[in-house]
Design goal:
This protein has about 400 residues and is α/β, with parallel strands linked by helices. The protein has helices at about 15-25, 45-55, 70-80, 110-130, 180-185, 205-215, 235-250, 265-280, 320-330, 345-350; strands at about 5-10, 30-35, 35-40, 60-70, 95-100, 140-145, 150-155, 195-200, 260, 285-290, 300-305, 335-340, 355-365, 365-375. Helix 3 (about 70-80) runs parallel beside helix 4 (about 110-130) and helix 5 (about 180-185) crosses helix 6.
Length: about 400
């Protein structure tokens, strides 16, 4: 009989609605949406499918407990009260990989980690009737969130973060994570029938993620997950089924117009190599080209980008001219839409146009804005006609 679990999917702050839609589209019921994470119901199969198919979450956690704790004694006793033997076998390797605390009386991550590990050992000593745990079996890392003294405990089913798709071996100096890039694309109305250009493509993340979406390529199909070894919870068949589903849905013969430009020729080579590693290099046209030369003869396309925003002091003096060039080229492409993530506060001023929408997003610890300049919708297609005719 299948077990039903509560699963937690963390994401970038501001991307919760995108992730919620993804989870719902996979067929799972949402329990709760909070800042930076979405909780949903699923079985062992859902753990596999969520890891393989979700584009915008950082990892998938198996929720095992939620309780109130204001003292270390309360933390110890509540942790000890969780039935760890239901999740971790006798030879399992277990530890608190990460603890975070916001607005809580318990705030030291190292102390929280240490006390919870001791409590787990005490519980499992009793459950398995042993004093010694060799911990030489499968790995069960924990992640713990404390918010206003409420403790949420999850076992990490993913391992290395899901933004590591496995294709990006070469990066530019200011890369955007794959999960955030996917979420930003999904915030736009872009689809594979529309043109997409990234004039600051860097390591190619935006255009590669777009090509993977166009080809219906699951983001997790070319990597492994820590819970693949959890034979006590997830039958191996669930993983095989999820991968088979991913392969059946993929269509790499799709026709698209996706273009990535960068002023640095070596960066363009790196982006092309990353696209090849992802299996989508044939779907993307890369070119060494400055933003001042951005153009396209067709209409109703999309520009999406992560331009420089002066992370280093010496770069700030170049920003007004750079953003002026962005504005000039966008003005010339008058039927296009433009989406830009930037921490540069004068972006709209030098582009010369106020964004139709502006969303605050945290890229790591950096506060950025997602500027959305909406172009007109294309006319409805006649049967057998492309939108550019």
């Amino acid at each position: 009989m299948k077990r039903t679990f509560e699963l937690i999917a963390p994401c970038h702050f501001g991307m919760e609605a995108v992730l919620k839609r993804e989870i719902t589209d996979l067929g799972y019921d949402i329990i709760q949406v909070e800042d930076g994470r979405v909780t949903f119901l699923g079985d062992d199969e859902a753990i596999c499918r969520a890891n393989v198919f979700l584009r915008t979450t950082e990892r998938v956690l198996l929720k095992v407990g939620c309780f109130h704790a204001e003292t270390f004694e309360e933390l110890f006793q509540a942790t000890k009260g969780i039935a760890w033997e239901d999740y971790i076998p006798k030879d399992g390797k277990f530890w608190v990989a990460k603890a975070s605390s916001i607005k809580s009386k318990l705030f030291s991550p190292s102390d929280i980690q240490s006390i919870m590990k001791k409590a787990m050992v005490e519980r499992m000593k009793s459950a398995y009737q042993t004093e010694l745990f060799e911990e030489n079996g499968s790995k069960y890392p924990l992640r713990v969130f404390l918010y206003k003294d409420q403790v949420t405990v999850g076992i990490d089913t993913t391992g290395e973060s899901l933004h590591r798709r496995g294709y990006r071996t070469l990066t530019s100096k200011a890369p955007i994570t794959e999960t955030l890039a996917a979420a930003l694309i999904m915030l736009t109305p872009w689809n594979r029938e529309r043109i997409l250009i990234d004039p600051f493509c860097g390591s190619g993340t935006f255009v590669i993620e777009a090509a993977m979406m166009a080809a219906n390529m699951a983001p997790g199909m070319n990597r492994s997950f820590i819970s693949e070894d959890w034979k006590n919870i997830i039958p191996k068949k669930c993983w095989y089924d999820a991968m088979d589903e991913a392969n059946d849905l993929m269509n790499t013969d799709v026709k698209v117009d996706i273009q990535g430009y960068d002023i640095d020729g070596e960066i363009v080579k790196a982006a092309r190599a990353n696209a090849e590693s992802a299996g989508v290099d044939h779907l993307i046209h890369f070119q060494q080209r400055p933003v001042s030369a951005m153009s396209h003869p067709k209409k109703y396309g999309f520009i999406i980008m992560n331009p420089p925003y002066g992370e280093r002091i010496e770069e700030k003096k170049d920003l007004p001219e750079l953003y002026r060039q962005i504005g000039e080229r966008y003005k010339a492409m008058d039927s296009w839409s433009m989406y830009m993530i930037s921490a540069y506060e004068d972006a709209e001023k030098y582009i010369g146009k106020k964004a139709d929408k502006n969303r605050k997003i945290y890229n790591g610890m950096m506060k950025t804005y997602y500027y959305q300049f909406m172009g007109p919708k294309p006319p409805k297609k006649k049967t057998g006609e492309s939108i550019d005719q």
